[in-house]
């Protein structure tokens, strides 16, 4: 018994030392594991921060694009076309050998056209009112004899022709005034050559030169 006791004690000491080594070995591993765990979570937060950053950066180009759009819209208002001034008489077309238009000559033609247009507008209104009365009488003509119906029909056709002619002359007159404003007055609408100052002064509504007018009448 006394001899075996030291061996037992020695064995116990060896076991205790081995257990102590294991405990010491485990502690660094546990500490390393504990330190390693938060290290893995940290990148996730950084990654989130990196992903959120482009969203803020993406908003900046959108604001810049909106500002650029406003700047681009501003010049559009300034670029509105300016109204053309009155056409100079000397710039109107004339035939070779004819003198250029003067302000007095053009003013006389414009006055004549405007006066004629005013008369034609009044005539058209009166003729249309008269035509409306004839059409109404024709609609209420039940019981009229054939002679009365024939006379009413003739009168209606005549008024229709008169109204159509007055409307056509009014359209020609207004077109002549418009051509004076845009500088194309005195140019033949068919061949593009000058109509002739003398012809235009004699017939201000003329839109064709003499050659084109004769050609049209032959058709």
UniProtKB/TrEMBL annotation:
<protein>
    <recommendedName>
        <fullName>Zinc finger DksA/TraR C4-type domain-containing protein</fullName>
    </recommendedName>
</protein>
<dbReference type="InterPro" id="IPR000962">
    <property type="entry name" value="Znf_DskA_TraR"/>
</dbReference>
<feature type="compositionally biased region" description="Low complexity">
    <location>
        <begin position="50"/>
        <end position="84"/>
    </location>
</feature>
<feature type="zinc finger region" description="dksA C4-type">
    <location>
        <begin position="188"/>
        <end position="212"/>
    </location>
</feature>
<feature type="region of interest" description="Disordered">
    <location>
        <begin position="1"/>
        <end position="90"/>
    </location>
</feature>
<keyword id="KW-0863">Zinc-finger</keyword>
<keyword id="KW-0479">Metal-binding</keyword>
<dbReference type="Pfam" id="PF01258">
    <property type="entry name" value="zf-dskA_traR"/>
</dbReference>
<feature type="coiled-coil region">
    <location>
        <begin position="103"/>
        <end position="137"/>
    </location>
</feature>
<keyword id="KW-0862">Zinc</keyword>
<feature type="domain" description="Zinc finger DksA/TraR C4-type">
    <location>
        <begin position="183"/>
        <end position="218"/>
    </location>
</feature>
<dbReference type="InterPro" id="IPR020458">
    <property type="entry name" value="Znf_DskA_TraR_CS"/>
</dbReference>
<keyword id="KW-0175">Coiled coil</keyword>
<dbReference type="InterPro" id="IPR037187">
    <property type="entry name" value="DnaK_N"/>
</dbReference>
């Amino acid at each position: 018994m006394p001899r075996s006791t030291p061996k037992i004690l020695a064995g116990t000491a060896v076991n205790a030392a081995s257990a102590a080594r294991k405990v010491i070995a485990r502690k660094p591993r546990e500490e390393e594991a504990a330190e390693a765990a938060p290290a893995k979570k940290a990148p996730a937060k950084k990654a989130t921060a990196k992903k959120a950053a482009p969203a803020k950066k993406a908003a900046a180009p959108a604001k810049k694009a909106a500002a650029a759009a406003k700047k681009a819209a501003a010049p559009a208002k300034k670029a509105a076309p300016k109204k053309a001034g009155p056409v100079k008489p000397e710039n109107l077309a004339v035939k070779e050998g004819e003198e250029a238009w003067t302000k007095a000559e053009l003013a006389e033609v414009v006055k004549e056209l405007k006066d004629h247009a005013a008369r034609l507008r009044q005539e058209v209104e009166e003729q249309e009112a008269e035509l409306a009365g004839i059409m109404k009488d024709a609609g209420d003509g039940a019981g009229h004899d054939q002679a009365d119906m024939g006379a009413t029909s003739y009168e209606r056709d005549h008024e229709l022709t008169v109204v159509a002619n007055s409307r056509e002359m009014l359209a020609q007159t207004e077109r002549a005034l418009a051509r004076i404003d845009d500088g194309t007055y005195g140019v033949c609408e068919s061949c593009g050559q000058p109509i002739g100052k003398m012809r235009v002064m004699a017939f201000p509504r003329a839109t064709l030169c003499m050659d084109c007018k004769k050609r049209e009448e032959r058709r």
